[in-house]
Amino acid sequence: MTNQKDEMSFLDHLEELRWHLIRSTMAVLIVAVLAFIYKDYVFAIIFGPKQGDFFTYQMFCKLGQLFDYESVFCAQELPFTLQNRTMAGQFSAHIWTSIWTGVIVSFPYILYELWKFISPGLYENERKLASGFIIIASVLFFSGILFGYYLIAPLSINFLGSYSVSDEVQNQIDLSSYISIVRSSVIACGLVFELPIIVYFLTKLGLVTPPFMRKYRRHAIVVILIISAIITPPDVTSQIIVTIPILILYEMSIFISKYVLKKDEKSKKINL
């Protein structure tokens, strides 16, 4: 560990943290301003899953035709319309969508600032992992974002937007409700895909081991099913689609935990 880190007082740490937070916030705001200006592109992406010719619907439609199954995904248009019922509704949606776009796009830089804050308290060999940590964590996060956007969001929108208790009721979805579905789907998946990184740090702290993860695999599966039920519409197909990649991530995390422990054992032997 560095002497500078040892000599820093508590107030110095707070001051350093404040500047990391300021720089992260500035990065988010810069991207948010650009997203605000180019709203047509941003909202074209958000409204993508509402279109009947969206990539996911076309994929499932062709898959259904392959097995001679009449798929609901072959509809040319989803049976609902979007509406705004408040004076400031569209402006508010514009503002918050821009901010969340800033958070998502700036995620790698936010990780970089976080690493810069904690790295002085780490050993030299641990600090060398900085670039790898940021790249892997960012790849996992954006993979989750794409998974949420191309699978979870359209499945949710198609199911909920088409669901009807009676022909007397028309689906006129509020703009904020629609955006909330898209936002929660992509961000939830982005965070869930960070599981291997979380397990890595928990293993480094000694809180998680491969035997522990194998022992409680059944409990983990139950938790995964609950998470899948929360972030997907209430149909079995959607839950299976979400459960499979999370299970794969869990199994990957066991190997990561095993790798970390082996590496730590080798380091201890070398030091001895």
UniProtKB/TrEMBL annotation:
One GO molecular function term of this record is: proton motive force dependent protein transmembrane transporter activity
Locate the transmembrane regions by residue number: 21-38, 93-112, 133-157, 177-203, 215-234, 240-261
Q: Does the keyword Isomerase apply?
A: no
Q: Which GO biological process annotations does it have? A: intracellular protein transmembrane transport; protein transport by the Tat complex
Q: How does it sit in the membrane?
A: Multi-pass membrane protein
Question: Which Pfam families would you find in this protein's record?
Answer: TatC
Classification via InterPro entries: TatC
One GO location term (cellular component): TAT protein transport complex
Q: Major place of localization?
A: membrane
The record's subcellular location field reads: Cell membrane; Membrane
Keyword annotations of the record: Cell membrane, Membrane, Protein transport, Translocation, Transmembrane, Transmembrane helix, Transport
Q: What is its quaternary makeup? A: Forms a complex with TatA.
Q: Which family does it belong to?
A: Belongs to the TatC family.
Q: What does the protein in this record do?
A: Part of the twin-arginine translocation (Tat) system that transports large folded proteins containing a characteristic twin-arginine motif in their signal peptide across membranes.
Protein name per the record: Sec-independent protein translocase protein TatC
Q: Which organism is it from?
A: Capnocytophaga cynodegmi
